[in-house]
Amino acid sequence: AQLHREDAVALELGGPEVGRGCGGRGIIHGFETLEKLGFHEWGFDYVLLDFLGDVVCGGFGLPIARDMCQKVIVVASNDLQSLYVANNVCKAVEYFRKMGGNVGVAGMILNKDDGTGEANAFAEAVGIPVLTAIPANEDIRKKSANYQIIGKPGGQWASIFEELAINVAEAPPLRPAPLDQDGLLGLFSADVTGADYALKPATQADMRGAAYVAKPSLEVVYDAAV
Fold this sequence. Notes:
The protein has helices spanning 23-36, 62-65, 80-98, 118-126, 138-145, 158-170, 181-185, 190-193, 204-208; strands at residues 2-5, 8-11, 71-76, 104-113, 130-135.
């Protein structure tokens, strides 16, 4: 599907129906088609590619893997799953940089910002800037749900998206320093991650229930030599 409005052209690559194929493979096929049509010679000032953050799938990681973009912008919010995906994107960028790639991370868009600060802490930890923060606001939510343009010139939220447009254009691609699992979990309080909960090993009775019959152990234990 293609949409042309003023000086902007929107194009959707599409893909298979739900449950009928690999979405990532659809992306790969779509880009192959665009390249055959001379996509790189169409003369656009800017090309924005909107992808899922599931870079574990080779198809969604294609623009990074093939240097098809100059910089990556991650969209995240102040929750663990969102920042887990953002960290995976940073890992993918760093992996392909080690393989000789040139793509970097320009920064992060903080979406649905509730002011708790975890996303800002993440951006600082991995070494990328926050390009703009979009507040968790009911008016924005309703407009988005109804497919309305939120950042219309002169509108209530225009300044946020004007700032974002400038920052996206000017921000240089950076090489991020992705976090390990402990570093990522450390951004959140223990009651969110469960770090303050003491785990108890399951017993045979827990796992086998009523069918479990205690029997003498056949384990051979050798006394330490004296």
